[in-house]
Write a structure and sequence with these properties.
Low-confidence stretches: none
Oligomer: single chain
Number of helices: 5
Mean pLDDT: 91
Radius of gyration: 19 Å
Largest sheet: none
Helix content: 55-70%
Structural class: mainly alpha
Distance between the termini: 32 Å
Shape: elongated
Number of strands: 0
């Protein structure tokens, strides 16, 4: 139900009303009503921002110079990462989620390379000491 609310632009007051109703049936230590509320709201807001974000990507694509290219890559990365977050909230296909995460990371990396190559202060864009988790971190 949360996915349907988020995808169909159900209003926040309506989501709140559904949440209040679900609380009538919630048992101790049961978080399903809370998960409904926050999943529906997160999806609603993510979908609302997606079109605006894509418009910003389109505009940034027209900006000349390294700053425009970097902004374009960062905005595109944000779009891919937003799509990945939506998939996670919807319990979507994990392979598709990975594809969006990978595309977002590639765009983020491209933005950093652009800053290193073209800016007057490449150290600002240098994140070579950043570590990413791997399977060894799995509990």
């Amino acid at each position: 139900m949360a996915i349907l609310c988020g995808q169909n632009t159900v209003t926040i007051p309506t989501i709140d009303a559904i949440y209040t109703y679900l609380l009538l049936f919630q048992q101790v230590k049961d978080t399903r009503a809370d998960d409904f509320e926050w999943t529906a709201k997160a999806l609603l807001k993510a979908y609302e921002t997606a079109d605006t974000l894509r418009a910003a990507v389109s505009c940034a694509n027209g900006v000349h110079g390294w700053r425009g290219r970097t902004a374009y890559e960062l905005l595109t990365a944000a779009d891919y990462l937003t799509q990945a977050a939506i998939q996670l909230l919807m319990h979507g296909n994990l392979h598709y989620t990975r594809e969006k995460l990978q595309s977002g990371l590639r765009r983020l990396t491209s933005a950093l390379y652009e800053g290193i190559r073209e800016s007057g202060t490449p150290a600002i864009f240098n994140f070579k000491n950043t570590n990413f988790p791997d399977e060894e971190d799995h509990r």
